[in-house]
Amino acid sequence: MNNSILIYGFTILVSTMLIAMGIYFLKNQQRNALRIQQITGFNAVTRLRELLSHVQQHRGISNGLLNGDTSLTARLTPLTAKVSNNIARINLEFKASVFDEQLQPLSRWTSITEHWSRLSIKTEQLTSANNLQQHNKLILNILYFIDDIAERHQIYKIVDAQGESVRHMWLELLFTAENIGQIRAIGTGVAAAEKCTSVERIRLNYLCHSLQQSLEDGIMLENSEQIRQLLQVVVQQITITVPSITAEEFFNLASACVEQILQEFDKQLQQFEQDIMPKNANLAACSD
Questions:
Q1: Cβ proximity of 210 and 83 under 8 Å
Q2: Distance (Å, whole) CA 48 – CA 139
Q3: Per-residue confidence at 267, pLDDT binned at 50, 70, 90?
Q4: How many Cα atoms are found within 13 Å in the side-chain-facing hemisphere of 217?
Q5: Where is average pLDDT lowest: 6-10, 55-59, 105-109, 276-280?
Q6: End-to-end Cα, the chain, rounded Å
Q7: For residue 213, how many other CB atoms are within 10 A of its CB?
């Protein structure tokens, strides 16, 4: 009888240990799979961020060109090539794994690539207003796609030191950069045309007010002086009867501000990627 009890107890103990080990290995596999998925998502977001930056630059330069500054033609051609190369590289590296139908419906990415294909061909044939409208729509679609990828690849499960998801921080930085990008595009066109219409003045005032609000709300920047300088230039040299700054000068000033925001985004991206990379030290060996 005692032996039966011992055997029964031993069987229960072994079974419990095996179940516990099974649960441990299953959870470990799930954690590793999640980290691989997140790293893949990080890589895709990095490429999409590059695409975003080049399309935003293309909008500003093309608007200056359409408003009469033909010297900007030399800058537009290589930018057009950069955007097309970005898209080709994304298609080559990620379409099969990242944009798989099971993870992310291809409709938004298809919309982005087809929109760019049409826009790149006819940019110089558009009116300034239509050019801005088309670029703004394309850029908004890219921003939403970045958000899609980060969500589908569970990057938003990563939290900061305060336990907050990175989502709010990322979107705030990207949409602030887009705010400045629109200021850059409109301001470059105004400087090229050497006049500021009432519609452009209203739009610039709205964008600058929104940007000022972002600064007051404490957007994550070590130094906002450059952006404040941009706001002053818009008031003093752009939204006046006869703009007193060249299209290229204004484009370059605003570009420095856009890059400052995007570099902060890159910094956050790299930090969170590094946070999960050490935990993946054994994954490369496992996948080889």
A1: no
A2: 11
A3: confident
A4: 11
A5: 276-280
A6: 53
A7: 11
What pLDDT digit, counting tens, does each position of 169-178 carry? 888 899 999 9
Top pLDDT among 116 and 42 is at 116
With the C-alpha atoms ordered 206, 212, 218, 224, is the resulting torsion angle positive or negative?
positive
Q: Which of 195, 192, 211 is nearest to 249 (CA)?
A: 192
Q: CA-to-CA distance for 174 and 258, rounded, in angstroms? A: 9
* Cβ proximity of 36 and 282 under 8 Å: no
Is 62 in contact with 135 (CB distance < 8 Å)? yes
Residue 162 contacts residue 209 (beta carbons within 8 Å): no
Strand runs labelled E in 41-158: none
C-alpha 190/C-alpha 70 separation (Å) is 14
**CA dist., res. 55 & res. 48, Å (int):** 10
Confidence of residue 38 (pLDDT cuts 50, 70, 90): confident
Q: Which three-class secondary structure string do you get for 208-236?
A: HHHHHHHHHCCCCCCCCHHHHHHHHHHHH
Do 188 and 236 meet the contact criterion of CB atoms below 8 Å apart? no
**Residue indicated by tokens 């902060």:** 264
**More confident: 164 or 204:** 204
Pair of tokens at residue 121: 């061909």
Return d(Cα 61, Cα 123) in angstroms, integer: 11
- Tokens 């996948």 found at: 287
Q: Using alpha carbons, select from 182, 197, 79, 184 the residue that is nearest to residue 137.
A: 182
For the cut 70, the answer to whether the pLDDT of residue 154 exceeds it is yes
Q: Is the pLDDT of residue 40 over 90?
A: no
Q: Which residues contact 29 (CB under 8 A, 6 or more apart)?
A: none
